[in-house]
């Protein structure tokens, strides 16, 4: 089964344009406008959401299901180092997570349905979601009515990875982790270090906090991998003044809401003890929380059948979920869904990870996903 050359060429054009003109989360105005200009002439009903999101509906008939497909559109604040001929022209901004390829694949799927529309029935709604990287896009589209009039029967989510050259994977149950951004604030009392007995050192208290975080990392057991990590710490104003404030920012990641709550409560308890030991006031704030993404078992069965027709033995049913988070889990409060990963690593080249300035995908790896998704839509409408 081969992808039509005209569709493929249009996908390449879209992917390279978006890659060349990336926009960071919640500022995807040019991206949304570009997608709108592409889709309106195709006959889809296109709704703009705050100028940065696009909801595009393709209604064929009333004989089939309503299926929603999510495609992220935001880029990252990363300086591109790939040297590609279509590299980012925006300093410090890059599509380093494959969202350009995801959007191009979704448009390729639209073109495929239109070309072979006698084989498809129902309504297809495409959600070009801004702000996925900051966990805000899904709620924005839900609030705009993306899952209403009509309500979808199924929701499809997919992502690209470059760890291997070819293949796909669907998780049997949980696909992505429950994620929460956390901020720890330490309040001390400043003084000159020559009179340190009069102060409360917020930096030393933050060190005690870090020690207790390491203890949790080593001892907490929820039966599955988890993350309690802090990537940013700041505090103090001058070298000879005891710091009266410090702040740590990080994230909590688990594969169930129950283990998330247990881990969070464990952190709260350790921080209370740290406050008692150091004399500092220590507070914990949960900035945002995204639930784990649970794949629907019926969709997994259909997805594996469709995947095996396109990828054969390289369509894998995964047992181990990913510790990444995805705000697409918010859609699952309204509709059953499934998340897939397509592999598109370049042959004989080092595979730099997502969010790296040298992250790349093999564009040829975008062909099979369109065919697989089309097969999956056929499965769903049966």
User: pLDDT below 50 for ≥5 consecutive residues: which ranges?
Assistant: none
Question: What fraction of the residues are assigned to beta strands by DSSP?
Answer: 15-25%
CATH class of the largest domain: Alpha Beta
- Which structural class best describes the helix and strand composition? alpha/beta
Q: Please give the share of residues in helix.
A: 25-40%
Q: What is the 3D form? A: elongated
* Overall strand count: 14
Largest sheet: 8 strands, mixed
Based on CA atoms alone, the radius of gyration comes out at 23 Å
Please, could you describe this protein's structure?
- It is a single chain.
- The protein is of the alpha/beta class and 382 residues long.
- It is 32% helix and 24% strand.
- The strands form three sheets. The chain has an eight-stranded mixed beta sheet with strand order 1-2-4-3-5-14-6-13, sandwiched between helices.
- Helix 3 links the parallel strand 3 (66-72) and strand 4 (123-129).
- Helix 7 (297-311) packs across helix 8 (367-381).
Write the layout of secondary structure elements.
Blueprint: H1 5-20, H2 29-39, E1 45-49, E2 53-59, E3 66-72, H3 99-115, E4 123-129, H4 137-143, E5 154-161, E6 168-171, E7 174-176, E8 178-187, H5 202-219, E9 227-235, E10 245-254, H6 257-278, E11 281-290, E12 293-294, H7 297-311, E13 315-318, E14 337-343, H8 367-381
Parallel strand pairs: 3-4, 3-5, 5-14, 6-13
Antiparallel strand pairs: 1-2, 2-4, 6-14, 7-12, 8-10, 8-11, 9-10
Helix pairs in contact: 1-3, 3-8, 5-6, 7-8
